[in-house]
Design goal:
Largest sheet: 2 strands, antiparallel
Shape: globular
Structural class: mainly alpha
Radius of gyration: 31 Å
Distance between the termini: 133 Å
Strand content: 5-15%
Strand order of the largest sheet: 1-2
Order of helices and strands: HEHHEHEHHEHHHHHHEEHH
Number of strands: 6
Helix content: 40-55%
């Protein structure tokens, strides 16, 4: 007798129920994960907002802001955000609108601290007695050394030399990129970002130097940081090489090419153990290097010591930093400067020796116009 192959309908129902139950369990788990994720996000956002409004744990930074009584709450909030006084621009704007604080802001320049909560900030912006002390603007050119920056600050009356140098050498800044740096007067070389700044007269030295470091952190963007990781380069090395480029290059469009020469030599340490960069030796001596200077026993002497100098030799601008991270693709290992500041780039020692003679000729040759003037 043939077997009954007809399936039991109840078995189908049972299997469907089992599958339905498993599917429902998976959906429940996914929903729970989603809810937890959203909850954690909202909790983190709430903590961040609360910290900004009530200033529970915020860095101790002072800033100078200038507002007018015609500004809207949104405009004031943007100024405070850019100055680092508040973290959430929109949140302060909402606070100012609903508290009607934006209707009472008075024109003037104010000294504010990032540790102030929103009500305290609003009170200061309504009080003429809170207006700031006298300030001075200081412009720091790209390629200035730490000592040159200190000289400029002292000359402008921003702070005392001893206080500034002690802060640079020893102060415990909270910036992540400062923590691994060895203490000493050259510790922050390369990180005092060149720019135009407004400082108080007779200011607090740590606040002055923190402005430079805050600016460096702002200018060294996440994109640049990601690029450095792609190249497997540490920030310290990026800054050192950028400082060499800044001091060696007179023309901006040559910076990526000079960077390529340095990187090419570093990539072949057995063939090119010494960078032989005059700017590093000049940082040591404070003058154009001579043949005798190349015998000075110092890690800044890249004719005697292999690889990079121990610190940056100047404070590079963003173009020099970018030139290191996005250097030109070349096979150059040498360069020599002409009289006009441009360089001749070469790949072999023989080519380089010929380039030296060619460059030397530019220093010896007198322009026709100068000759005419001498004969008159």
């Amino acid at each position: 007798m043939p077997e009954n192959t007809q399936k039991n309908p109840r078995q189908k129902i049972k299997r469907r129920r089992m599958y339905s139950g498993g599917h429902g369990c998976l959906v429940s788990v996914m929903y729970l994960i989603f809810v937890l994720g959203v909850s954690m996000f909202l909790a983190g956002l709430a903590i961040s907002w609360s910290n900004d409004v009530f200033a529970f744990v915020k860095p101790d930074r002072t800033a100078v802001v200038e507002i007018s009584d015609t500004m809207t709450g949104a405009q004031v909030a943007e100024i405070l955000k850019n100055a680092g006084v508040v973290e959430h621009q929109k949140l302060f704007e909402i606070y100012a609108r609903f508290s009607k604080a934006d209707q009472k802001f008075k024109s003037g320049k104010y000294e504010l601290n990032s540790k102030l909560d929103y009500p305290a900030i609003a009170r200061k912006l309504r009080s003429t007695s809170a207006q700031k002390r006298d300030t001075v603007w200081v412009t720091i050119p790209e390629g200035y050394t730490t000592k040159q920056i200190v000289d400029a600050l002292v000359t402008k009356g921003v702070a005392g030399r001893d206080a500034l140098m002690d802060t640079i050498a020893n102060y415990s800044f909270t910036h992540d990129f400062v923590k691994p740096l060895k203490k000493g007067e050259t510790r922050l070389e390369g990180y005092l970002f060149p720019d135009t700044y407004e400082f108080y007269i007779n200011d607090n030295a740590p606040d002055v130097i923190a402005k430079f470091l805050d600016n460096f952190k702002k200018k060294y963007t996440n994109d640049l940081s990601v690029r450095a990781k792609e190249l497997d380069m540490e920030l310290k090395d990026v800054v050192i090489i950028a400082s060499l480029v800044e001091r060696e290059a007179k023309l901006n469009d040559e910076k990526p090419v000079i960077a390529s020469v340095i990187l090419n030599r570093l990539a072949k340490p057995e063939e090119f153990p010494f960078l032989q960069i005059d700017a590093s030796l000049q940082y040591l001596t404070g003058k154009a290097p001579t043949a005798d200077d190349k015998n000075i026993d110092s890690p800044y002497n890249t004719y005697m010591y292999k690889g990079l100098p121990p610190t940056a030799i100047a404070n590079p601008g963003i173009d020099a930093i970018a030139s290191v991270l996005y250097s030109a693709e070349t096979e150059y290992y040498y360069y020599v400067a002409r009289k006009d500041g441009s360089h001749i780039f070469t790949s072999t020692l023989e080519e380089h020796n010929n380039a030296i003679q060619e460059a030397a000729a530019t220093f010896e040759a007198e322009p026709e116009e100068e000759k005419k003037n001498e004969n008159q």
